[in-house]
Here is the input.
Amino acid sequence: MNIKRIISLAAAASLSMAMLASCGSNDESSTSEKKDNSSTAEAVVERIDGKGATIKVLTNRTDRLSQGGDGSMEERTKAFEEAFNCKVEYTGFTNYADDVSKMMTTKDYGDVLAIPDSVELKDLGNFFEPLGTYDELKETYRWVDKKMYDKTVYGIATGGTATGILYNTKVWADAGITELPKTPEEFLEDLQKIKDKGEAIPYYTQFADASWTIGQWSNLILSASGDPNYNTGLLQNKNDLFAEDGGYYKVFKLMYDVFSNKDVIEEDPTTTQWEASKEWMADGKIGTMVMGSWAISQFEEKAAGHEEDIGYMPAPFTVDGKQYAQTSADYCLGVNKNSENIELAKKYVEWFALESGYAFDEGMIPPAANSELPNNLGNFKDCVLFEEELAPDELQGKFNEVDKGSEVGTFDGDAANFKIKLAEAAFAGKGEEGFKAIIEDCNKRWAETRDSVIK
Here is the structure.
């Protein structure tokens, strides 16, 4: 691990924001500073003449489109259209991963699109245009290895997150909680305090949208392990995926314990509502949710006038007395290799990452390598922040290959996935035996596939 990288991230986190109140949420000044920063971005992308061409962009951000959302995506894109003499048409999908994956069975899947995680790394070149090599892009962008195969990069992140937990600071304070939890036991105790002291739902599962929401728990794994090489180490050391001292076990045992306690979750998890939950949390009817830091700005919008009620905390795990937090990429934009406007589409990807201001306005970590962290990570000042380390050449793409081949799906959320099964077992009150049966099955399938891939 590059220790200088860790130190610089930690320093940036503490220096780039006014520290938050004891429960750690944003104040109004930080929100205005965030907006101001995006509007003064310097032009860094070389201009070309698009000659009036139209490029089609597929996005998951339906809430930011003019049809059904606030229209901010089209509004910010006017700068690109003017600078590059072109038009941009957006198409939004509420069930993005599934719908776009189906579109990719044809050649007609837009010019620019957020790359679905269903595409295996080794297959990226079959669908997407190369954007450059790892060595060419690593000094310009963060997370260039996320959508990369054989050192060729096919996607650039729209922004990034620090892994953690979204919470209502007032709900937690009203329950008498004065220090944020650092262990799973403390987290569970705090949820019970919220239940005992008020009417808010302590933890909202978002299970009705589990195809993507339950995958948010997977984002905590490296933070729980404290190891930027954790996934690579699983392959090198041939450890069980769910080794009891490892990140996967810690995270999903906590999820299972939360979901097993009917006192601290909503009455009927099958009827959860994503959009409505933003207002409910803003109004203090929900206390806590596992979400990436990308979600902060969306919940702050619903808490207009009292944005300080929306806070973000590190995952409640410690390693040798320290808390860790992984920073990682959100969706990555790629260029359809069948596009008739490949060069213009590439410029859009560059512009979106480096000039649009999207990430900072959304409270995400901007993809530009030299950019500051957003103003909403005040509770992370004592955490060790890190990015996942790139696997050695001989293991490039192998974790993804084992993950897909075993059908474990560490980030997937389909009905057969272990996360869904764990949630259903927890809701059904199947206890420790139910948990063990599911993870033992995952361990078996993972090991068999790993041993066939890693000789």
Summary: Confidence is low (pLDDT under 50) at residues 1-41. The chain has 19 helices and 14 strands. The CA atoms of residues 322 and 383 lie 7 Å apart. The longest strand covers residues 54-59.
